[in-house]
Design goal:
Blueprint (H helix, E strand, L loop, with lengths): L1 H25 L13 H19 L3 H6 L3 H7 L2 H11 L1 H4 L3 E10 L2 E9 L5 E10 L5 E3 L3 E3 L7
Antiparallel strand pairs: 1-2, 2-3, 3-4, 3-5
Length: 155
Amino acid sequence: MAATAGMLQARWGATARASITLILLLFGLAAPVLAQDLSPTDRSAIRDVIQGQVEAFRRDDGGQAFGLASPMIQGMFGTPEIFMDMVRQGYQPVYRPRVFDFREIVSLDGQPTQKVHVVGPDGRPVTAYYPMVQLPDGTWRINGCYLKAPEDHQA
């Protein structure tokens, strides 16, 4: 009887661990993908998603641009129209860039984050940081965008 109870306990423990791991993976709470762990294919896919969104912005294709945002971002804004209004008002450099030059991928807050050198329509340079999230199907989505002006270096 003790052997059976021990086997059941061991089996339940393994099942519970597997279930918890699956739940964490499904909700994106498992160990984050670090920038240095990305394959060349993932790096290319990340750039393609970001480039696709910028091209959608240029065409004012809200549906396409919104579709490349993560489920969290989509949930925050609800519709492509609201999302595009936010981009037009607060993200002119990526909405209508003069220059859009990919740089390295770094880890910020445990997320792979693509850095991009951008020159906006006003001619001012900024660095755009694009945190990325990988969905359970393996595709990448944009999980935000943070703009940082370069620091002025005065002599």
